[in-house]
TrEMBL record:
GO CC terms: cytoplasm
Entry keyword Transferase: no
Keywords carried by this UniProt record: FAD, Flavoprotein, Oxidoreductase
Native source organism of the sequence: Streptoalloteichus hindustanus
Lineage, opening ranks: Bacteria, Bacillati, Actinomycetota, Actinomycetes, Pseudonocardiales
Reductase C-terminal domain mapped to chain residues: 122-205
Superkingdom field: Bacteria
Protein name: Reductase C-terminal
InterPro entries: FAD-oxidoreductase/Apoptosis, FAD/NAD-bd_sf, FAD/NAD-binding_dom, FAD/NAD-linked_Rdtase_dimer_sf, Reductase_C
Domain FAD/NAD(P)-binding: from-to ranges: 3-101
Cofactor needs: FAD
Signal peptide: none
Length: 210
């Protein structure tokens, strides 16, 4: 894989079986297929027509209720309360779509189930397992204190820990799936655990908070 940053495209055209992308600086790339990954826009037209509150997504509360009695919503299209910032946000991951849907149904059935997720997602890229959880963007500016690597990131087998003051707000794990599960638990239940302890690769994470 060859990553190119800071490139401005002049044009992308189909030429027979090829797609040809030309940069403003004249460089040219040819491919079988071009994929535009430009972010997401929630499809809220139906909700708007139904009179639900919509603000960059269908607004729901912690019970997954929309602004209309008896109508609940779950998944990418919802904007839900952000536990750290106090405003609302969308979570665009499979785990949220599944878990929020379960909470929505339980609440509809009369089983009070507040939904306060620690968002997480996982992916496999070129044989490397990537897992993220929490709110890394809420970390202090990514410096010495904001982002601490537990080990050595160049090994492609380490977690990065994101901090906001003395609170662990998220993690990004390259490899280490077992450590990721422990860190997810710590972000959710013991976010004020000691930074130096967590950052030390010699610390067994299973004992933290237990
Ligand atoms: C390329 C790509 C890669 C991804 N990779 C990952 C990943 O590695 N890990 C991860 O956790 N997540 C990943 N995601 C995100 C994940 O796919 C979504 O979070 C998940 O699918 C959300 O589920 P959902 O049910 O909320 O919405 P969707 O899966 O988008 O389903 C919504 C459905 O509603 C339908 N719909 C919309 N409007 C109407 C209407 N008016 N009437 C009837 N039907 C309607 C749509 O057609 C769609 O079928 C990826 C997404 C993309 C696009």
């Amino acid at each position: 894989m060859d990553l190119q940053f800071g490139v401005r495209l002049a044009e992308v055209v189909r030429n027979g079986d090829e797609v040809v992308a030309t940069a403003e600086d004249g460089r040219v790339w040819r491919a079988d297929l071009a994929v535009a990954a430009l972010g997401m826009v929630p499809e809220t037209e139906l909700a708007e027509r139904a009179g639900l509150d919509v603000a960059d997504g269908v607004v729901v509360d912690q019970r997954c209720h929309t602004s209309a009695p008896g109508i609940s919503a779950a998944g990418d299209v919802t904007v839900q309360p952000h536990p750290l910032r106090g405003d609302r946000y969308r979570i665009e991951h499979l785990g949220n779509a599944q878990d929020q849907a379960v909470a929505a149904v339980r609440n509809l059935l009369g089983v009070p189930t507040p939904y306060t997720p620690v968002p997480w997602s996982a992916s496999e890229q070129y044989g490397v397992r990537l897992q993220l959880c929490g709110w890394p963007a809420a970390a202090d500016a990514y410096g010495e204190r904001g982002c601490v690597v537990r080990g050595d990131m160049s090994t492609l087998d380490s977690p990065a820990l994101f901090w906001n003051r003395d609170r662990l707000v998220g993690t990004a794990c390259v490899g280490r799936p077992a450590e990721f599960e422990e860190l997810r638990r710590i972000v959710a239940n013991h976010p004020h655990a000691d930074l130096d302890l967590l950052a030390d690769p010699a610390t067994g994470l299973a004992v933290v908070g237990r």
